[in-house]
Amino acid sequence: MRSTRQLNEHTDLAAIAPLLYVAWADGALQASEIERIRDAARARLDVPDEVLEGWLDPASPPSSTELLQLYRFVRERSRALDATERGGLVDLGLALAQLDGSPSDREAKALALSEIEAALGIVGREVARHFFEDRPPVRHDFEEAAPPFDVGAMTRALDGEHREDWERVRALVRDPRLALDHAPTMAAHRARVLEQLLVLAGEGIGALAFPIEHGGAGRMDRFVKHFEALAMHDLSLVVKLGVQFGLFGGAILNLGSARQHAQLLGRVGDASLLGGFAMTELGHGSNVRDLETVARFDGDRFVLHTPSASARKEWIGNAALHGQAMVVFAQLETQGERHGVHAFYVPIRDEDGAPLAGVRVQDCGPKMGLDGVDNGRLWFDHVEVPREHLLDRYASVDEDGTYHSPIASPSRRFFTMLGTLVGGRISVGAAAVTASKVALATAVRYGALRRQFGPEGEPEQALLDYPAHQRRLLPHVAAAYAHHFAAADLQRRWRDHEGEDNREIEALAAGVKALATWHGIDATQAARECCGGMGFLARNRICELRKDVDVFATFEGDNTVLLQLVAKSLLTGFAKQLSDNLLGTLLSEVGARARRALLETNPIHKRREDDEHLLDAGFHGDALRFRAHNLLVSAARRLKRRTDAGLDSFEAFTAIQAHAVALARAHVEAHVHTCFLDAIEALDGGPERDALEGLRALWAVWRIHEDVGWFLENGYFEPQKARALRKLLDRQCADVREGAVALVDAFGIPDEMLGPIAFEGYAAGG
Fold this sequence. Notes:
Butyryl-CoA Dehydrogenase, subunit A, domain 2; 13 strands; alpha+beta; single chain; six-stranded mixed β-sheet; 8% strand; Butyryl-CoA Dehydrogenase, subunit A, domain 3
């Protein structure tokens, strides 16, 4: 039999009460544990056998009520003890026995209690605090130190020369007409997005890129910046904006003539003419050159036709519901000859919204994300459009069917047409970075607010103070800064070379888009996970951003395909460099090999692991450039071996696709690092520059460490240096954590765009 009254009747039983509670509360006692407790108690404690056996019976363990009573007994008496008596469970048991009149042979009793503690495998001192210390109240407020830099100054550094555009968008997203109210259905979401698109058109945003004489501002760079900044809002609205004004309007602007501009751009800009961009086909995807849709010249008109199931236009924004016309890409045929892919202005609906004769439309239906965008499929059954509907900046057809183009080469004409649309890739990459900023700002602020676990008797610890949490989240914050500066650099290059045939910028746009959109996906996923279940809640926006940004890796070019385009450009440039200056290139390559050989035999460089070296921008830049150059030269060698063996260029490149993708990634990462460094060097010295340098170092160490196997395999450094980099990565995360909230606040995301969990009071439903 057992009873908590026995604790008052037998002082030595009171001495083992704390141990009994911990033992039974932790689970069932094993036979070996019971035997050792019994032996120790019988040898040195004065507890009747029948009482002791009642508390050690494995067939009848204490009930939850009895355990609670046991806990209360120990807790109530332990509170009367002074601090010197509040040690481990042994000290606590001895003190309880003394309070109840235990004998003075402390040494024997202490030995007995120590043997019992050892038998149970209990770390007593920390467990004992459970009885006499109250858990501090849970807190849901920031305890952040003062920002280590001026947040406003950092925001200005990020906004750069387009600060007014960023500020305008920050004000716009607070406009009640652009409220982020949750749409209960896909239909409601699409209707809301259309209404908000009209608001943006009324604010003149849609026409920013169009000529002044057609209601615009003639500033494509400002349109791209508005698109980028608006990605802090609903990405469905951003994509709808891009489809209407960037793709539909941009195609007319860049591929159409002055006559077509005058006829169409005004109505496109004010959204009285809604349209889309019908390029992608089911069976061809990124392979635009081999699209099947045909536009055959017949008399005074073109006849557009979808010749097969695989030729249907797929995923066309604005097609399912709202589009009145499309820019359709099709193979132009006239006088029995095909002249390649060209763009046509094609009405698809009448004034009542019904499809025109020969046009078949089908809604793509629910998607993983972007439910506010009405993606649709299109088929054309011998649809007739006037000859003047060929967008004729780069090609025209006379009344008799004679074809003309100012660009004689079909290949160059094709790439020139596509090159005028490179702004889409630039915009999408930048928008993905902005979306990641919203998710990261919410997750970092939540991590500073949300507390979980911690030492016994101490307050729960903020999630953001845990090294594992920092490692999951803060490198993505650094990446958001890195890709922001790379996107800004790309936009400046494109603006300064607009209208020129610049393949280098087109390739760079493809590479930056690929890495920036993958960053957007990875960062929003990390933010979602780091917020636990709250990150899964729609009202906190992170899960919606994660779903919506996913397709950014696909549209405006599949990322893996785009990286192959980058690799081809690099290999072509390398081959041209060889042919144009064979001796100089060979001498340069010999010199690079010599330097690399010297490096590979230099144990000091390969093994150097001090922070001064590992944090140095020169080391980071050299490592990233070394990897890119090594992959370029080895890819060129592999291609040459295959072509020498008789493979054609397509087969040879296909055989090294994985190598090509790795080359392109390495090249773009080296470029991103250069952009980050240039942005830092453009600032005067001070805390903002210091904070950016810390982020740059974190990003560079992270990227090098992520590919540590390659650097080891190629002898760039040895294992001890790799281990030092891993340890440094953790230290850098800890350093950046000190200003993490200020760093995401510097993104300048309005409070209305962040999830409720980013703010104090979230736990109360605020």
